[in-house]
């Protein structure tokens, strides 16, 4: 029984506290068991909204799956989940026959599994009006209750900023790495620097920086126009001594594909955007190869700040 109850708790309160502790302990076991089957965990994040973070996460997952890897895509942008729409996944949550069984994720194909809050909503247009504790619990359930199975990569799409969702991922997934997405202009880069400092504060290794929307490719003449400037992401990576994963240009076909749910990167077409995503993913594969699990699945998660002096709470 938790010592946090104190001596002033009545017997009913102590029973409630004990039952919550037991549930959390069981959930922790389920989380470590699930993560123990996942070789690489990647959080796609940015301090700035509107930089195409979900587009990068979805296409990164598609590209890895197309290469034959077993991939999971988890959407923790709880207030604005878009992953299901971008992949045209219309299924709904199917409860297992046995209450103790894990819940099957949505499947895009044989190599890609997807979990999003939209998957669990009767009306996907309903607003999610949640505070921190509910969001934290939802993310823990995405890991503990879903049947991810054996994965080479789990891609996590986070909302903008450095709040509850990325912090919960950092605390719940030992060994998770970050891919930081930015656009080239100065306003986005100022917020991205906060994301980099967040990763360092919670001891989350950074795989590298992606400069998205790096030039617009004209569909008529194929020339590139630098609408949002150019090179800011690469300079930021250099300033923080981080790997630069590459530039991804704006391509109308990628935008249309995301809106219609017909992923462009799953096609056999060729374009500068597809080549750019291929190069980014190839670098990620080199830095995080689909090898053995690098985190002991039975080890208790450490403090998110990376030090040994803090409690796990």
Mean pLDDT across all amino acids: 84
Based on CA atoms alone, the radius of gyration comes out at: 20 Å
Task: Outline the low-pLDDT stretches.
Answer: 294-313
What is the overall shape?
globular
Order of helices and strands: HEHEHEEHEHEHEEHEHH
Largest sheet: 9 strands, mixed
Could you give the count of β-strands? 9
Q: How would you classify the helix and strand content by structural class? A: alpha/beta
Strand content: 15-25%
Provide the helix percentage: 25-40%
Number of helices, where a helix is a run of at least 4 consecutive DSSP H or I residues: 9
Distance between the termini: 16 Å
Describe this structure in words.
- Strands 1, 2, 3, 4, 5, 6, 7, 8 and 9 form a nine-stranded mixed sheet that branches.
- With 313 residues, this protein is an alpha/beta fold.
- It contains nine helices and nine strands.
- The longest helix has 25 residues, at 11-35.
- Strand 6, helix 6 and strand 7 form a beta-alpha-beta unit.
- It has helices spanning 11-35, 53-66, 83-86, 132-144, 164-172, 186-201, 232-239, 252-260, 272-287; strands at residues 38-45, 71-75, 106-109, 112-116, 151-157, 177-182, 206-217, 224-225, 244-250.
């Amino acid at each position: 029984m938790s010592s946090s109850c104190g001596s002033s708790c009545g017997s009913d309160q102590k029973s409630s506290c004990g039952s919550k502790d037991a549930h959390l302990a069981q959930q922790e076991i389920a989380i470590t068991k699930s993560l123990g089957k996942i070789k690489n965990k990647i959080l796609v994040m940015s301090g700035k909204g509107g930089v195409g973070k979900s587009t990068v996460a979805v296409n990164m997952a598609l590209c890895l799956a197309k290469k034959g890897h077993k991939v999971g895509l988890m959407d923790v942008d709880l207030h604005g989940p878009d992953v299901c729409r971008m992949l045209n996944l219309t299924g709904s949550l199917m409860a297992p026959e046995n209450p103790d069984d894990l819940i099957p994720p949505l499947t895009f194909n044989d190599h890609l599994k997807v979990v999003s809050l939209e998957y669990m909503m009767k009306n996907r247009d309903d607003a999610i009006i949640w505070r921190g504790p509910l969001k934290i619990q939802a993310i823990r359930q995405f890991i503990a209750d879903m049947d991810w199975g054996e994965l080479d990569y789990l891609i996590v799409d986070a909302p903008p900023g450095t709040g509850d969702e990325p912090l919960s991922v950092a605390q719940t997934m030992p060994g998770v790495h970050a891919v930081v997405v930015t656009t080239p202009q100065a306003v986005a880069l100022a917020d991205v620097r906060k994301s980099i400092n967040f990763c360092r504060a919670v001891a989350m290794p950074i795989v590298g920086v992606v400069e998205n929307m790096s030039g617009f490719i004209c569909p008529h003449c194929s020339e590139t126009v630098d609408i949002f400037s150019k090179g800011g992401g690469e300079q930021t990576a250099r300033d923080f001594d981080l790997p630069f994963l590459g530039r991804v240009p704006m391509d109308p076909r990628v935008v249309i594909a995301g809106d219609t749910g017909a992923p462009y990167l799953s096609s056999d077409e060729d374009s500068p955007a597809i080549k750019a995503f291929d190069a980014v993913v190839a670098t990620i594969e080199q830095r995080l190869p689909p090898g053995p699990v690098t985190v002991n699945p039975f080890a208790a998660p450490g403090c998110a700040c990376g030090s040994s002096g803090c409690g796990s709470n």
